[in-house]
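quick one
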Amino acid sequence: MKLKKVDVVICGGGWTGLAIAKELATRTSLEIVVLERGPAQSISDYSNNMDEVDYTLRMKMMQNTAEETLTHRHTLRDTADPVRRPGHVRIGTGTGGSGEHWSGVTNRYPEDTFTIKTALKDRFGSSRIPENLSVQDWTLTWSDIEPFYTRVEEMMGIGGKAGNIQGRLIDGGNIFEGPRSKEYPVGPHRQSLPMTVFEKAARQLGYHPYINPAATLPFDYKNPDGIARPGCAYCGFCTPYGCMIGAKAQPTNLLMPILRRKKSFTLRNNAWVRRILHKDGQAEAVMYMDEKGNEVIQPADIVISSAFPTGNARLLLMSKIGTPYDPLTGTGTLGRNFTHQMSGGSGFQIIYDKPLHGYAHAGGQSMSFSDFDSFNKLDPDAGILRGGTFTGGGGGSGLPISSFGNIPPGIATRNWGADWKKAALLYHDRMAGAPGFSAEHLAYKQNFLDLDPTYTDKWGDPLLRTTIDWTDHEERVRAFAAKISAQMAKEMASVSGGKLVQSEGRGAGRRSGRYQTAFYATTHLHGGAIMGDSPATGAVNTFLQHWSMPNLWVIGASAFPHAGATNPTITALALTFRAADAMIDKYLKNPGALA
Ligand SMILES: Cc1cc2nc3c(=O)[nH]c(=O)nc-3n(C[C@H](O)[C@H](O)[C@H](O)COP(=O)(O)OP(=O)(O)OC[C@H]3O[C@@H](n4cnc5c(N)ncnc54)[C@H](O)[C@@H]3O)c2cc1C
Ligand code: SF4
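structure w/ flavin-adenine dinucleotide:
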């Protein structure tokens, strides 16, 4: 079936897709269709029917891996296996995408992230930069992106405290952040007991702690679009849930209320895009399957791909747009510079002598210090090229079912029976972890994306193959993170009078050795359709417009040339707003290549 042509078709109705739809729908009269493969979702779903078994254990909001998943191999020599359960990543589906069940941690990237190659050369000299790195500058600088960070923070109502306003450093904020044009729109979250302990310990060790900026509104707020939301109720059911009162910034409560009022906007759920159709260097339409399994062609003047980084890369590869990356020759840009945010920690836990009330907690409510971000305080001779952020004091006991049974080692020999139950009840709300570390993941020539030659999705299309492994560099970063985390853990135990115990860290990031898909790390994947200053270095230009197809835009963290130290979403949205401005203010007036 072929439908009537529209002005814009957007493939993927998550954070970035609905954000660009909102910009276009409110600032132009263009007819916009968003195709979202997952079901409709709205705030009422979260207030009526949420259940820990469905959402946390059965991962109701995630992509069904029986329908589509990633495959993984460590090296070119290996055969990739499909990831059969949501393991190392939890990719979302349905209206709002992963933006519905995210945690809302919203640190900006350090200032020199965007000029990484230049920064590395200046610090180490070209001869000390490992040959297998594939780092490149991002095509923009801090002053280009800062206004867009501010716009995203104002849209979401980020609660935080600035540490650097126009060069003036402010104690209590992140003094290592790039200069901000203004203060956060909302004040920071209140401090829980473990956050207070984290702050004291960090200060005693000479670090500069701050309350993490978060999209889980600490106070009532009305954003510049006129969307009013209530402050967080600290219900604890934040990740991986939608917020039942709308306090967490989500596409369904910030963008859909505006879009729904626009006659020029249509969202089609259960619409699974399989190809972008193109001719003579122009995108002409997309082909998708509707909920009845019919093949539908939607012609459009402008096509935007916003299907999460891995979805974007896969759609381009399947549509044969751009030159696939070849790791042996280094040619081609599509699939290049695939990265996954790194994490680390020490596995220490502190047992407190009183309950922490950890069930009353919000996503992102935690403390951090950035003394080791970028190159700050890193020994240039320690073999660590880039650092990251230490975060702790969040979490507490967590949810009643899924986090039950976290007990100190050596107390019960099995995880059932009377002794175990007694200990599980006693310690459930008295243990808090040592700080974790989230670090930059540099791009390597050998880590990339392509189409799997064996495995297919439910439509018979090839799955996306990820070829990625950690290197000695990440091993050194993890060892460093473990050292600082242990130092903090000891100080936190001393400050609080708590007892320090060592348990094995959970999660892929905290395990040393090779990249793993069995344990959750983060859903912070980047690259595959990166921005570059020419078609030889990027799939898209600085405005996320495809280099070889000017009416195709590929938005999201797929454009990141490497993984910054912290979580990616506000950076992805800042680039999305910048792309929207370029499209509206330049491209629509004079359609063609903008760079
Ligand atoms: C548990 C969890 C916690 C997180 N916490 C944080 C955090 O604290 N801070 C942070 O910065 N980030 C966090 N993230 C990451 C954040 O959610 C993503 O960075 C963000 O949602 C990315 O926006 P996006 O538009 O690229 O993708 P999404 O928001 O995932 O949207 C992509 C959409 O495209 C749809 N789609 C995919 N393929 C197709 C297709 N072929 N046809 C049609 N539709 C398609 C998907 O169904 C999805 O709805 C978290 C993610 C998870 C899963
Ligand atoms: S903790 Fe706050 S922001 Fe998170 S879901 Fe509950 S009320 Fe919403």
